[in-house]
Design a protein that fits this description.
It is built from 2 helices and no strands.
């Protein structure tokens, strides 16, 4: 339930940022580019939700090698 609330809040923040950029356009290109990053992050979170862990299952680790057993005296 809380993830839905967070997504709605991020969507509203993005809408407010976009509306603010339309009503009061940035003075120069650098300000406009500076507004794109947080706006893109908010929109991405509002659409996709929180980042998830990799969906590709990890391969299990190979079994540890067994030490050679001592079968008695050896000739050198």
């Amino acid at each position: 339930m809380s993830s839905i609330i967070v997504r709605v809040v991020c969507g509203l923040l993005f809408a407010a940022m976009a509306l603010g950029a339309v009503v009061h356009p940035p003075a120069n290109l650098n300000q406009g580019l500076g507004m794109l990053l947080p706006g893109a992050m908010l929109l991405n979170y509002a659409i996709k939700g929180s980042p998830r862990r990799s969906t590709i299952p990890k391969k299990p680790a190979p079994p540890a090698p067994t030490p050679p057993s001592d079968s008695g005296p050896t000739r050198a």
